[in-house]
Amino acid sequence: MLDVQSRTSESQTAQESKSTPIFEVEDLHLHYLTRFGDKIPAVSGVSFSMQKGEILGVAGESGCGKSTLVNGCMGLFIPPLNPTSGDVRVAGESLMNRTPSDIRRNVLGRKITMIPQGAFNSLNPTRKIKDFAADMIESHEMGSNKKEIYDRLRERFRLIGMDESILNSYPIQITAGMRQRSVIAISTLLNPQMVIADEPTSALDVTTQKAVIKMIFDLLDKEIFSSMIFITHELPLLRHVSDRIAIMYAGEFVEVGTTEQIIFDPRHPYTRALMGAMLSAEPGQKQKKPVAIEGAPPNLAKPISGCRFAERCPVARKECHVNKQEIRIVGDRQVRCDYAE
Amino acid sequence: MQNKDIFTAKNITCTFGHGKKMVKAVDDVSFTIADEEIVSLVGSSGCGKSVLAKIMLGLIHPTSGEFLYNGQQIVNQRKHWREVQPVFQDPFSCFNQFFTIRSQLKASFGILEKKPSDKEMEERVDQALLAVNIKPPEIEGKYPFELSGGQMQRMLLARIFILKPKVLIADEPTSMVDACVRANILDYLMKLKEELKMTIVFITHDIGLAYYVSDRLFIMYKGKIVEQGPPDDVTLSPKSEHTVQLLDDIPDIHKEWIKR
Predict the structure, then answer these.
(1) Which residue segment(s) compose the domain that A276 sits in?
(2) Which one of A165, B9, B107, B214 has the largest count of C-beta atoms within 10 Å of its C-beta?
(3) Which residues contact B254 (CB under 8 A, 6 or more apart)?
């Protein structure tokens, strides 16, 4: 126990000397509690830290724990989701063991915010965009003046290059792309430090997707927020958006590295398989068949002894089904595979 | 050998609303789709792809112009649906939440002229499930909300294996699923095409996907077909500016996409 403590304090001083990370997740374990009292581990052993101005991409197939990780990163534990162990810190402030109402009032919106996937489901269909946004500000800043809030909204929309007339419309009156952009503008109104975007563009077509990504970069340039976690299953999109990519499988990070490393030189068999399932309109692609990964992710309700990917891994060895794989450093990236060279 | 035409559209226009608020969803479009061909309709949202799909399914009639299936106008919808079947984007809104999936798959026999015997129906459902790589016990007694998006999308495809239509209209069948499941679903579509000798109309906004599956591409913009041809010609030497736009907007790992 002492050992662990001394190690963490050592690593902390080492990090402080470099530059203080804006957001840290340390060995985070999360589980869902079923009504029979079983614990289903959804996220296990996730650690990363983020510097100012950095975009971390998280990729993986559906059901691998991406969205659970998002809730964990916000410190928002609403049953059946429960934290098992680990720590999440925004600018040094821990988000663990706090009540949802405390998190909602003091953390969400100001320090950390989320951009959801379906913009239409996040807006109130019976209220104008400006009233919806004003509600958000009022609940965070008690006793603020309505007129001032509207002025502030108009100013913010002007700053990020959006039409002010959108503020006066209802969600159904504007296009899907505009709705998603309004949601992004509203979630970043209070200048949060961290933004977590959970598949912000997967419901949009390619042209609108580009416009939304452009807007996100613009917000980053104008220092409205300082860093971001971008969650998606589209690897080609991450190639252009993120600085670093973490590949997630069955609740664990299996490979973390820079964008170039992950996209052009994947080492973990799962990352390689993901790259193989990609499609693009390039000459010669028509003959090249995208290779789907056979099978489904493992059932996390049952304990898994060996590597979690072993069942579907094309290069699995006998030992893989027995030995638990730990994350290790290969070159300057992290890989959770004993045989990745 | 030239296959016979399945769909023929002659100057079809489809409008919604009246007067100033009138919207031309499909604007003076003509094309033919031959038997056993895979055609992709590509365009951004609001370009009229889905309206065209609904016209093909006989759900909407064009405001003007002529739309023919096998040389005849679509009069009887039920009769039409025995031969033309859709796969939609969101499988969860296609299945009723209150009935088991199996019973709904069985109910799809209702569209046929003569219902087979109960035993044969059960057998055909089992075969169709195996064709989409799902073991029948896996969905025994399950309701739509108990399955994942990828599994549900495969249920929609299983329906196609059951009904064995001549034409399949696939309206964004992969836009809700992740990359691995997408590769899977495309495999099943190709299998359908090979086994049942089907004509497939594939609707998508992802030109990369369209390039991979189709024999011919239609690029749509604001209700008009602005470019059509074999996928290699359209993607490698695009003539219309809208095609160039669509190609540019796809994030590609080897190309510059957005400057940061």
Answers:
(1) 2-126+170-335
(2) B214
(3) A282
